[in-house]
Design goal:
Layout (H helix, E strand, L loop, with lengths): L5 E6 L5 H15 L3 E6 L1 H10 L5 E3 L14 H7 L1 H20 L5 E5 L11 E4 L11 H12 L4 E4 L11 H4 L7 E3 L15 E6 L6 H13 L6 E4 L9 E4 L2 E4 L4 H9 L1 E6 L3 H10 L2 E4 L6 H12 L48
Parallel strand pairs: 1-2, 1-4, 2-3, 4-5, 5-6, 6-7, 8-9, 8-12, 9-11, 12-13
Antiparallel strand pairs: 10-11
Length: 356
């Protein structure tokens, strides 16, 4: 590599999954000597600030996606929010254009931020949703998403290309107009041989109000449990707060290193079936019970697919009880995953095309 190039890494703020799976990408860029600029909004921005306090971090316009209280209104609620998403996309494009005009960035890595691309610098788009599952509108939602993906130079899919796939048809059964690269699952965690201190680790995540509803369900479920429980709220705040209620320890957030230790020192994980969470569970080869967000087509698909393959049990949020954990021995988990490719190979994209 010649003179140091600066790469913009911009994850979407939709839960914390897009930001967390960018962490290994950011660390790989650091190891290769690139300059890095980070950009996001909301909780994702707060997480990046805590993980990389010395890197320049900028606030981008918010897509401001919220979920409905009732699952049956999920699709309609998202459709009604498309105008403000499009407004944010246009603002993103303007910001990126100014940065490039001022010579501040030489390449782009966008994790599902639709407007963070520019023809003047090489750009990569990270997604596992080449096929966007949305029920009867899957064909049109996939077409619309692929229109945005086509603005980039490469699409990086955090999954395996072969038969052992985590994303199923979402990451594989779609044609793109740009090159696809299967880069292997992205996780900020590594497996450690630690003493098991906790019986159940509960991870709460995702947009409101469903995040709060899931937290309340887990609190009620394990309120009188004899098991030792840790519940991570997934709420990024200035200070970390711990609360003890019976055998349950509740913490608002954890840094990556803290959560890695918590994963490795817990016997079982209860979590949403979001793709980033599944990648983390796979990397750590944990036993897990999945509870998809009500009405969220992608999570319902992933939970059903993994259950049908005998990998992880799952159920609807309203049906979850502590007794459901007795199903875990009937499922095999993920012990046969492959090693991901070295991420540094991906950065060749930024060495083949300079500013125009």
């Amino acid at each position: 590599m010649g003179a140091q190039k600066t790469i913009l890494v911009a994850p979407l703020n939709w839960g914390l999954g897009h930001a967390t799976r960018c962490i290994p990408i950011i660390k790989a860029l650091q190891n290769e000597g690139y300059g890095i600029r980070l950009a996001s909004d909301g909780a994702a921005l707060s997480l990046l600030k805590k993980e990389f306090p010395t890197l320049p971090i900028y606030e981008m316009p918010s897509y401001d996606i919220t979920y409905p209280q009732r699952a049956e209104w999920f699709k309609l609620k998202l459709l009604l929010q498309l105008p403000k998403v499009w407004s944010a996309v246009k603002k993103e494009r303007k910001m990126v254009g100014e940065w490039i005009k001022n010579g501040e960035i030489d390449g782009i890595i966008s994790d599902n931020r639709l407007g963070v691309s520019h023809s003047a610098v090489p750009s990569a788009y990270i997604t596992h949703q080449c096929r966007v599952i949305s029920g009867t509108t899957t064909a049109i939602s996939s077409w619309l998403h692929n229109r945005f993906i086509s603005k980039f130079d490469e699409c990086w899919i955090p999954d395996y290309e072969g038969p052992f796939t985590l994303s199923g048809s979402m990451g594989h059964h779609a044609k793109l107009s740009i090159p696809k690269k299967y880069i292997g699952p992205l996780s900020r965690f590594q497996q450690q041989a630690l003493h098991k201190k906790y019986d159940v680790l509960c991870l709460v995540s995702g947009p409101e109000p469903q995040r709060t509803q899931f937290e309340q369900k887990l609190r009620e479920t394990f309120a009188s449990s004899p098991k030792k429980i840790v519940l991570v709220q997934g709420v990024m705040e200035e200070e970390q707060r711990w609360i003890k209620k019976g055998n349950m320890f509740i913490v608002n957030y954890m840094t990556s290193s803290e959560l890695e230790k918590m994963f490795n020192s817990s016997d079982v994980v209860v979590a949403r079936s979001g793709y980033s969470t599944i990648m983390d569970i796979a990397a750590l080869r944990k036993k897990a019970y999945l509870v998809p967000t009500p009405g969220q087509y992608e999570q319902l698909y992933l939970a059903r697919r993994l259950k049908d393959k005998g990998i992880f049990p799952s159920c609807q949020q309203s049906h979850f009880t502590e007794d459901k954990l007795q199903e875990l021995p009937l499922f095999k988990g993920m012990d046969n995953i492959e090693e991901p490719l070295p991420l540094a190979r991906l950065f060749r994209l930024f060495e083949g095309k300079g500013k125009l």
